[in-house]
């Protein structure tokens, strides 16, 4: 059994790297000890189902395999988490249009300041993601990666260029999904801006700075809650896109 120790260490490195970068597990509120312990128990389960082609030797080349597994694990986690950034980006678009861009909240999960609407969108997205067992999808993807990308073998030639193209495609999808989520609120507030501009021409004595901001905030929250079903519809599309991205990574890095 000790002969399989080098292979199990490679499996553990990939899973630990994945849990440090993947959605849900990457949050700062989850202790690092839990992430490492969870990666260890998943490694124990995976090790009994995956049969390596050969056992690598503990030499200088083995360190390169460890580096390769780290890159694979982080790539699987980051490229899926990157799509969830579309939720926060959509909130930034909405707050910029409604006048809440300067009002931010500290997110203890990410450790950065986030816009109010982006924080709300992200909380609703995580609840939806967990309710449809999205974390199970990611966990199954991490386990299935050992069938497509063996831990003891090297990555195929040309994988770097294909991964760069996939990253560009995921970035494009991120902006497209962000605009799709924010477009109802942004479009409505834009129409309010046009109406206020026409009102300022008809009634020059009116102080639009005093009247316009409360009106835009009221419209912002009304449209925000009316369009929540559209938000959950887009979230379903985002999860499907995330699943497709995982499959694309497998095809690119698979040997």
Automatic annotation (TrEMBL):
InterPro entries: FliR, T3SS_IM_R
UniProt keywords, alphabetically: Bacterial flagellum, Cell membrane, Cell projection, Cilium, Flagellum, Membrane, Transmembrane, Transmembrane helix
Keyword Transmembrane helix appears in the UniProt entry: yes
Cellular-component GO terms for this entry: bacterial-type flagellum basal body; plasma membrane
Localization in the cell: Cell membrane; Bacterial flagellum basal body
Function field: Role in flagellar biosynthesis.
Protein name as annotated: Flagellar biosynthetic protein FliR
């Amino acid at each position: 059994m000790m002969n399989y120790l080098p292979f199990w260490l490679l499996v553990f490195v990939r899973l630990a790297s994945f849990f440090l970068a993947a959605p849900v597990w990457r949050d700062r509120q989850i202790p690092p000890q839990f992430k490492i312990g969870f990666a260890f128990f998943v490694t124990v389960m995976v090790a009994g189902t995956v049969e390596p082609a050969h056992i690598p030797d503990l030499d200088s080349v083995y360190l390169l395999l460890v580096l390769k597994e780290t890159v694979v694990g982080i790539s699987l986690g980051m490229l899926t988490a990157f799509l969830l950034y579309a939720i926060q980006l959509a909130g930034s678009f909405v707050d910029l249009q409604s006048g809440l861009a300067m009002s931010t909240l500290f997110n203890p999960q990410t450790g950065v300041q986030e816009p109010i609407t982006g924080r709300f969108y992200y909380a609703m997205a995580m609840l939806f993601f967990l309710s449809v067992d999205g974390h199970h999808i990611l966990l199954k993807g991490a386990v299935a990666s050992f069938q497509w990308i063996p831990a003891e073998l090297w990555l195929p030639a040309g994988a770097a260029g294909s991964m760069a193209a996939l990253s560009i495609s995921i970035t494009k999808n991120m902006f497209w999904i962000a605009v799709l989520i924010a477009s109802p609120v942004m479009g409505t507030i834009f129409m309010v801006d046009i109406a206020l501009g026409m009102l300022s021409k008809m009634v020059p004595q009116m102080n639009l700075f005093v009247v316009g901001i409360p009106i835009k905030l009221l419209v912002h929250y009304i449209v925000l809650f009316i369009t929540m079903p559209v938000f959950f519809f887009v979230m379903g599309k985002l999860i499907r896109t995330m699943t497709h991205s995982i499959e694309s990574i497998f095809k690119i890095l698979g040997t």
